[in-house]
Amino acid sequence: MTAIRKEVVIGACRLLLGDCREVLPSLSGGGIAVVSDPPYGIAYAHSGGGGGKHDVRNLKPVVGDDRPFDPVPLLRFDDAILWGANHYAARLPHGRWLAWDKLAGIPAFDSFSDVEFAWRVGRGKDRIFSHLWKGLAKASEKGGKERWHPTQKPIALMAWCVEQLSTSLAVLDPYMGSGTTGVACVKLGRKFIGIEIDEGYFEIACVRIRKAYAQPDIFIEPDRPAAPVQQGFDL
């Protein structure tokens, strides 16, 4: 039985339905960078908040999150950015850290973490990305039907990650979920390989990536108008 249960190619995106532990050995390590938000091994459970008539969030448990996460199979690729790495840092070599400030300067207002961390392979400077995305407080993707996965990240964050990688590398997300990394790659014109074990999330990722190609502008945040500048007067 093949490890790949289904394969869909959309533009420069190759989407694979299957267990990444079985699919990854078939991929060459060269010319690929990993950008992913894997299961952390913390048995994540959403609080289940919301519940209004427009609440379409998927609160299913994250597949694989009930066991310790092993990042080693992902370290053979040319570059790697792994979110939630503070939960499995003891199993990673020395690297650098990326921090996502989820409040972007506003005061804390709930009991959940205000920041998330990613590990990146190799030596270099640690970096911070500020982007409001916490509960209903969101600086992007507003509207109510954009939360498809319980641990979904904003497209802006994943685009920021991809922009740090060499443009010569294809981007691999072995825990694709609802396809946010793939949407970011479409927006940036990058090649993408996504692997997802859950068929429901796989189909959502296919829809979102097709939509990103068909309507790329809907994923681009409008520029804020420039602040007014007071003009001087010649006397």
Question: Can you describe what's shown?
Answer:
By secondary structure, the chain is α/β, with parallel strands linked by helices. The chain has one domain: Rossmann fold, CATH 3.40.50. Helix content is 16%, strand content 22%.
Low-confidence stretches: 42-58, 221-235
The major pleated sheet works out as: 9 strands, mixed
CATH homologous group name: Vaccinia Virus protein VP39
> What order do the helices and strands follow?
EEHEEEEEEEHEHEH
The overall number of domains is: 1
Morphology:
globular
For the CA atoms, what is the radius of gyration? Answer: 19 Å
Helix content: 10-25%
Structural classification: alpha/beta
Number of strands: 11
- In the CATH hierarchy, what is the class? Alpha Beta
CATH fold naming: Rossmann fold
Question: How would you name the oligomeric state of the polypeptide chains in this document?
Answer: single chain
Question: What layout of secondary structure does this protein have?
Answer:
Blueprint: E1 6-10, E2 13-17, H1 20-23, E3 32-36, E4 79-83, E5 95-101, E6 115-121, E7 127-130, E8 133-134, E9 137-138, H2 155-163, E10 170-173, H3 180-188, E11 192-196, H4 199-214
Parallel strand pairs: 2-11, 3-4, 3-10, 5-7, 10-11
Antiparallel strand pairs: 1-2, 4-6, 5-6, 8-9
Helix pairs in contact: 2-3, 3-4
